[in-house]
Amino acid sequence: xxxxxxxxxxxxxxxxxxxxxxxxxxxxxxxxxxxxxxxxxxxxxxxxxxxxxxxxxxxxxxxxxxxxxxxxxxxxxxxxxxxxxxxxxxxxxxxxxxxxxxxxxxxxxxxxxxxxxxxxxxxx
Length: 124
Known about the structure:
Layout: E1 3-7, E2 10-13, E3 18-25, E4 33-39, E5 46-51, E6 58-60, E7 68-73, E8 78-83, E9 92-99, E10 113-114, E11 118-123
Parallel strand pairs: 2-11
Antiparallel strand pairs: 1-3, 3-8, 4-5, 4-9, 5-6, 7-8, 9-10, 9-11
């Protein structure tokens, strides 16, 4: 059984930083493209960042470029999302996801497994 467990969310003031983690178990982590998405009530899940398993290429949504950094530690089966200069608009539930196929990283439907989500709240 594949499990993805996020941690690191919380309440932070605008301009602050948070680092999210997502630990994967049940399947080989090093062959998964890992993505971070976020969602607010009433809106569709939104792509944030992804890191490919094959070459560690990183993709970012425009909203996070220059502020967010995705990374992975294959030895720990964990993917991270470092978020700096946070804004109130970044408030959302953040989900990590794993794709073991050859999907398009920004497309949520291409991911095979999802975590339960972690709340990030940025106060103004």
